[in-house]
Specification:
The termini are far apart. β4 (about 80-85), α4 and β5 (about 105) form a beta-alpha-beta unit. The protein is built from 12 helices and 5 strands. Helices cover about 55% and strands about 10% of the residues. It has a 5-stranded parallel β-sheet with strand order 2-1-3-4-5, sandwiched between helices.
Length: about 240
């Protein structure tokens, strides 16, 4: 069963890029292009009106740049994913963007249309585009869990709470999740947390114990063990 298309907003003072994004086949990747702005100030009011799921934004823009926009936008829209897409990709700016709540940082020119499509599918935890599907996307129950984890993986979550909402047994939902994704719930949750932790360690001044708390693992020793097992290096080696 398909879920509603995700709403995408693009903020960039490069008009040719905006025009290209309007022509991108968003529907193919379960998305719809809902609006654009050429500066952060105009984007703030547009963001409130459109309530997009994903916002791609440049850093260097007139009137209000991307970082100033993030300071305002992320607290008001905590469930929206903000992705920096900028040629202004110095380390300090990337780190500041992540600190302000950006989900990712992509350098302009790095993504072809096909790669952007693959990136969108990854954001949603989907396996294939609409054109590539033969047997459908994840079942509704599994997609629900994936969507909820994407929003709340830094909190204390469990399969029990999702099974309760869906009216299913924990064992059945767990088996269904593994069959559809190839991963157990706990491993999928760990994956999300470790990827976020890696970003925070690389791009923010947060200490290891602070990163652990940020990704929902208050026991710092357990966090270090998980991170080391996942990446093959300790969190301290990433800093």
């Amino acid at each position: 069963m398909e879920t509603t298309n995700k709403k995408v907003m693009w903020i960039d003072d490069d008009v040719p890029i905006i025009e290209a994004m309007k022509k991108f086949p968003w529907e193919k990747y379960y998305c719809q292009f809902v609006g654009s702005a050429t500066n952060g100030k105009d984007a703030v009011s547009l963001l409130d009106a459109l309530e997009p799921d994903y916002v791609f934004l440049d850093i260097t823009m007139p009137i209000m740049d991307g970082l100033e926009f993030l300071k305002i936008a992320k607290p008001r829209h905590p469930d929206t994913d903000f992705i920096i897409y900028s040629a202004f990709c110095e380390f300090e700016y990337a780190r500041e963007a992540i600190r302000l709540g950006a989900k990712d940082f992509i350098a302009k020119g790095e993504l072809t249309d096909e790669e952007l499509g693959a990136y969108l599918l990854k954001l949603m935890g989907r396996k294939e585009s609409r054109d590539a599907e033969t047997s459908g996307t994840y079942r509704y129950e599994v997609q629900y869990v994936i969507d909820e984890l994407g929003k709340h993986f830094t909190e204390q979550v469990s399969m029990d709470q999702y099974a309760n909402v869906l009216g299913l047994s924990v064992n059945y939902l767990g088996s269904l999740f593994f069959k559809e994704t190839g991963m157990h719930f706990k491993d999928y949750l760990t994956k999300l947390r470790m990827e976020r932790a890696n970003q925070l360690l690389r791009f923010t001044p947060l200490k290891v114990f602070e990163v652990a708390e940020q990704v929902g693992i208050p026991n710092v020793q357990y966090f270090i063990t998980l991170f080391t097992k996942y990446y093959g290096v300790t969190p301290g080696q990433v800093k």
